[in-house]
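Changelog note: in this version the structure field was regenerated for every chain. One regenerated record is shown below for reference.
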Amino acid sequence: MYIREVPHFIRIKVCLYVTSLALTGYLLFNTINARLPFVALTVFTLTAGIYALNRRRDRHEDELNRRIMNPLVINDAGKMLITAFLSISMLSVIPLSNYSKTFYLIGLVFGIMYYKIPVKKITRIKNIYTMLSMSAMFMLGATSTSAPTHVLLPYYLLICLYILSISILADIRDYKGDKQVGVASIPIVYGYDNSKNLVILLLFVSILTAVSMKLSIFYLAIPFIPLAAYFIRRNMMQTAYNSLFLSFLIMPVSAIALSII
């Protein structure tokens, strides 16, 4: 009965791009083996469960921003789905390394803390919080068969920068609804246009970082950044967000191509 509502309830795009980050980490630093599907399943279901859980907390601003109330946000079927997703993630992480389990716990704890603590009310923390929790999923994938090394650091820093950019962009997109419910997001506190300029700056710093550090895994994503900047300038925030979403999906493809070459 609620099947059509599930993708919106779990924020399917977020689930896919966070899963893409984990797969990118896996493909960069591990040989392909039977753990690959467990990485994808763990991250997808964890992200789905956490975002669905927080949809229930943020129902009022979501309704204002999207002008619709998902029935799963308010009924018992939504609670059952959250329990199912989180349970599957806990089972699917078992075959992965202890390092992956550690990053899984970081993501899980951050998600529950976000639900319990009014992080959205704290301007300087919210986007950093999102950045750290999502980048932990990249690390989960990267360490699924081995320990983290210094080689991971430049990739991790660039992933953090990219996530921070899209997190602020999402706040710009949700500016009107967040303002009505009193969310202290960066666009509301520091200004709508200033936030647009900040996102564009962060995106182009991402390009310079990828090129200067020769992180070729990100090269295929580069064309999406000027495109997103163009849409941001024209106040087409959802289209800009979609452009960056596609760039996340490209990253695992880049990793596969590099492994073949």
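Spot check on this record: The mean pLDDT is 87. The first helix runs from residue 6 to 10.
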